[in-house]
Amino acid sequence: MSKSIATAVAHPNIAFIKYWGNRDDALRIPMNASLSMNLAALSTTTSVEFRCDLQQDDLLIDGQSAAPAALQRVSAFLDIVREQMPEKQHAIIISRNNFPMGAGIASSASAFAALAAAASHAAGLDLDEAALSRLARRGSGSACRSIPAGFVEWLPGREDESSYAVSFAPAGHWNLVDLIAVVNRTHKEVGSTAGHALAATSPLQSARVSDCPRRLALCRQAILEKDFVAFAAIVELDSDMMHAVMQTSTPPLLYWEAATLELMQKVRSWRSQGLPVCYTIDAGPNVHVLCQQQDATQVEELLEQITAAQAVYRSDTGSGVQLV
Ligand code: DP6
Questions:
Q1: Which tens digits make up the pLDDT trace of 236-261?
Q2: Atom of ligand 1 lying closest to residue 112 CA
Q3: Is 192 in the pocket of ligand 1 (CB under 6 A)?
Q4: Is the beta carbon of 38 within 6 A of some atom in ligand 1?
């Protein structure tokens, strides 16, 4: 007999080669491959219980009833799981983040990775890692990268079956640390889903996408060889190219704030003074500052002296999704 309740834990991930723009928005088939590492210190724990006595799904996030838009996105995702269930039941979903929701740290990747694992298990589906990654991708593209462990590549594919993520090095392979400098905690006006839909309006997007295999190969090689100098150069270039596309979309998206730019310049000046450090920035103003373990305390202290950084979260490389 299949169990109708399951709980899973997943970590968010930070992309070094970014996903921006879809070939297919509905299926979340990306225009380009991307590469990331999971963040061990941050996690989402989600339990899903399918029950025959419910009229609709019920979603609790960090002890609060979720907003209608969040419930709708989760219900639409659960419909994909329900298609494969003999009896279509609604569910109670209880989700907790170990980091503040309003901190401006993306939670959709860990949220949909944990939800995919818990919901599919509760539904009695026996999915392998690739199938689970494909399912998580339907909820949020970057969530497919939070399924495998450590350093992960999302093979973009051209249709549902071929678009999923794989691990290319375990979490312990390289002691990279992500120091997330939070400069603004308010919710962003234009989220990633709406942003992806604008990517094709930028004349720079085709150049970004066509050069992506080169950047990704360089980044993967830098990680495999633990070559921080090469890693820093390609990670900052990739982040800057994605933001160039955002800033030249119609309408334009400018996620940077004055504090973002201040941090970018500080990171570059520390590196020019010999400290191995670099930045990458997602669809928001916060700055992910990357370095190796041996330099992390010094970098963290430097970041804490910058008043524009309201908080700094520190994370090592993390495992993949796990059922608990
Ligand atoms: C800038 O995965 O959040 O963080 O698929 O619409 O949920 P949806 O988008 P999402 O996009 C992530 C964009 C990014 C870059 C990245 O993580 O690769």
A1: 999 999 999 999 999 999 999 999 99
A2: 7
A3: yes
A4: no
